[in-house]
UniProtKB/TrEMBL annotation:
It comes from the Eukaryota. One of its GO terms (molecular function) is glucan endo-1,3-alpha-glucosidase activity. Gene3D superfamilies: Glycosidases. CDD domains: GH71. InterPro entries: Glyco_hydro_71 (IPR005197). This is Glycoside hydrolase family 71 protein. Pfam families: Glyco_hydro_71 (PF03659).
Amino acid sequence: MVFAHYMIQFAPPGLNGNPNPDYSTDINMAKAAGFDAFAVDYTDNAALFATNLDILYHTASTLGFKLFLTIDTTTMYDVAQVVNITSFYANSPAQLKDGAGNIFLSSFEVNPPGWNWQTDVIDQLNIQNIGVNFLPGSLGQDGAYEASLPDRGTGLFTWIHPALSASEEAAVDQTFADARDSSGKPWMAGVAPWFFKRLASDTNWLNAQDSNIYIDRWVELLKLKPDYIEVISWNDFGESHYIGPADSTPEAELMLPSKADYYGNLDHSAFLKMSTFFINTYKAGETNVTVTADEEDVFFFYRPQPVNNIPTNDTYLDNAWPLPENASSIADNVYVVPFLSEPATIYLSSGGYSTSMDAPSFLSKSAITFNSPAMMGQQILTASRPINGQTLNKTGTVDITSGGSRYQGNVVAI
């Protein structure tokens, strides 16, 4: 099964003055893309969850979609609340369960919480006749070590490691695959479309894997065949990792972070569409993506600024923040990702500078640099032949520029 981490803290699409959030758009989009459930991020915000979580579970039940809770231990400190909320939704029609009837439960952890998962949570739920398939999140890099730890639930869940290179992340994945094979414990792998966060001078980072973070990692995970895969995330605008819609709700009605900081006009819809190819391949038990003529598409994604550019009129409070951590690992490229049934030549016009790429059948990825002012500006994608029966002509929704009022490390992906 394939899940998407879901931040209920952020407003869903189309709020537009309605005090009651409508989650049907997100759920229907996720179902259409092949996702089996949302892993709902649960933090210490009782007022929010008293209303929104109930609406989400009700909507999911109505639409035949599944949910499970991910306990965020960086902000949740009340173990009784964890037990109570998990128990409350355990018998909801929307609650995801395994074949034995055990509910799914996971966590996000930077450090171990102030409780014992087995005795303080799982045993307390078992007393209520609630079986638990618990997959605790880990930032650890050694699968064998993580599998050997007590109090670690049913299986293993690898999160994302922002400072690791793609090859280092692949090596970590291999240790968890090996631990799964030797221990018999199921393994859930997390994969993210992008990462960028800049909330303070000391909370200021990019992911060192750059363009390899999503496409290349999916390709690698298809070979390792985790028991479950979780996309991180559907809508975490605060860290720029989202595949769901960048909301059209007016700025004044949104919870933080603001669109201006992170996701205004920065569409990630290509990552959602790519996900369908990967999900279908994964569920079919295949290791290589194949594409039929009526599935063809070509995507591209890029940051709207050079990585070393801090706008002179940056309006952050101290106006003196350094470049994000891991910026030295990020290249100034436009990435083109064709999914083709037959080869084609793809053309990118980058600020008037034209590049051609001979793309083979099925999945490929090319990088075109924009390391000079002449190669910035509008981005236009075309092809030598019809793609899925249509003329390909995609124009980036945001130009590449060295201006702007904020440093922007997020991408537009269309």
